[in-house]
């Protein structure tokens, strides 16, 4: 059996290693450049690879192709594979056939990283032999090849879900839905929503689907479609008989006739959206029979995700916050919503069709100055120029942070929450976040 892996990053190399171990004839092809550390791993494992090209005769003879999530369906090589009827799947779909481990799959437009890390933390503290993978950390396929875990918590993007056929998580979470990556879905929001709900398509009566009941699109989908899974809702707006809700400043999770309760002010993570993330993660812990005391302790000592509302430093009474992972309007909405002091907002990058009007009321209420950080900031200027007192354009992180420092006064917050992708000036959102933290430390 010939396995061709498109993309020589973390998921590609992990898949190649698992494929080799299972006796496939493996070939890795990357249209970009494969990083040195991955080249080395492939060579040590005797796996053939190429980069900066796709050689068709070495690819179109595949029995199965694993496509890395970053490669769009409209890539010419992918189209040719589909025309030939060759199965093109995601890393998750390839790896799941080689493990008996239970998986918890987590998707959504925002909050999925935090919810994934929090769920992993709860299960690990509860003594389970648990792995973390998917869109985060070490490749799932790579971990399956080493076969070390009984349970995996997987962060799944819509792109990974597009490439599943038989994959079925025992517990699935959809944190929320908002328009994101629409460039990959022909600018059709419904196609993107359908992608997210693929997470539940193979689930049966023994499985669980945990969803945000305050989310309009999620509730609409559930009214118009069916899932065999047991649906567990959570909400911060309404009281629910079953699932997660708020009562008298307590987080209440009522699951399988068991009530878990905890004061909201004891949660380690701040902000309304994090109450929801906590409800979803707690539901998983309850289903996995983790002791209530352990859940409480874990929720109160959890350290959040890097680049997600991460407090960097307080300098001369000004708090600097790194929210580089906010690559869409909805994520930045959460960030601005959780600000309690006058804010200098650093924003900009590659716009994925953003509608900034949704942020207007928050900007009016909380933002005193805007520092644009991107190649093209025209749309931001058109929207906010008359709303804030100061608006400045910059093209480097160091400059952006220095200007933000000048605008900010004691008691203010400087928030990097770009609302956009990072590819115009940075490698990725991690690079952008690290540069921000370095610039703050150098003030």
Automatic annotation (TrEMBL):
One of its GO terms (molecular function) is ligase activity. PANTHER family: UDP-N-ACETYLMURAMOYLALANINE--D-GLUTAMATE LIGASE. Residues 307-419 form the Mur ligase C-terminal domain. Residues 106-285 form the Mur ligase central domain. Pathway: Cell wall biogenesis; peptidoglycan biosynthesis. Belongs to the MurCDEF family. ATP binds at residues 108-114. It catalyses: UDP-N-acetyl-alpha-D-muramoyl-L-alanine + D-glutamate + ATP = UDP-N-acetyl-alpha-D-muramoyl-L-alanyl-D-glutamate + ADP + phosphate + H(+). It comes from Flavobacterium okayamense. Its EC number is 6.3.2.9. This is UDP-N-acetylmuramoylalanine--D-glutamate ligase.
């Amino acid at each position: 059996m010939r396995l061709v892996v498109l993309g020589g990053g973390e998921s590609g190399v992990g898949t190649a290693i698992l494929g080799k171990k299972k006796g496939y004839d493996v070939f890795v092809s990357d249209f970009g450049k494969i990083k040195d550390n991955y080249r080395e791993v492939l060579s040590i494992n005797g796996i053939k690879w190429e980069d900066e090209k796709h050689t068709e005769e070495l690819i179109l003879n595949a029995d199965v192709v694993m496509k890395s999530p970053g490669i769009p369906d409209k890539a010419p090589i992918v189209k040719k594979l589909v025309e030939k009827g060759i199965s093109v799947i995601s890393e998750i779909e390839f790896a799941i056939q080689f493990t008996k481990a239970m998986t918890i799959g987590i998707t959504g437009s925002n909050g999925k990283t935090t919810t994934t890390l929090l769920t992993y933390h709860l299960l690990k503290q509860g003594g389970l032999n648990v792995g973390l993978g998917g869109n985060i950390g070490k490749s799932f396929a790579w971990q399956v090849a080493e076969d070390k875990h009984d349970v995996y918590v997987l962060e799944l993007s819509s792109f990974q879900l597009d490439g599943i056929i038989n994959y079925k998580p025992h517990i699935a979470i959809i944190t929320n839905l908002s328009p994101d990556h629409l460039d990959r879905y022909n600018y059709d929001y419904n196609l993107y929503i359908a992608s997210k709900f693929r997470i539940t398509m193979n689930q049966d009566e023994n499985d669980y689907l945990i969803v945000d009941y305050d989310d309009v699109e999620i509730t609409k989908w559930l009214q118009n479609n069916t899932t065999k899974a047991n649906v567990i809702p959570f909400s911060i707006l309404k009281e629910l008989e079953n699932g997660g809700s708020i009562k008298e400043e307590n987080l209440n999770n009522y699951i399988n006739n068991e009530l878990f309760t905890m004061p909201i002010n004891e949660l380690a993570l701040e902000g309304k959206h994090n109450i929801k993330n906590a409800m979803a993660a707690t539901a998983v812990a309850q289903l996995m029979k983790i002791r209530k005391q352990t859940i409480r302790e874990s929720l109160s000592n959890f350290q959040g995700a890097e680049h997600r509302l991460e407090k960097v430093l307080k300098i001369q009474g000004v708090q600097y916050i790194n929210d580089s992972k906010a690559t869409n309007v909805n994520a930045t909405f959460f960030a601005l919503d959780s600000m309690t002091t006058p804010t200098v907002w650093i924003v900009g990058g590659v716009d994925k069709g953003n509608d900034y009007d949704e942020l207007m009321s928050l900007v009016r209420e909380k933002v005193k100055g805007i520092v644009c950080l991107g190649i093209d900031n025209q749309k931001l200027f058109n929207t906010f120029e008359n709303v804030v007192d100061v608006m400045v354009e910059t093209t480097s992180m160091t400059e952006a942070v220095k200007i933000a420092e000048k605008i900010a006064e004691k008691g203010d917050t400087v928030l990097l929450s770009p609302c956009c992708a990072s590819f115009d000036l940075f490698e990725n959102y991690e690079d952008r976040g690290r540069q921000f933290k370095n610039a703050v430390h150098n003030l």
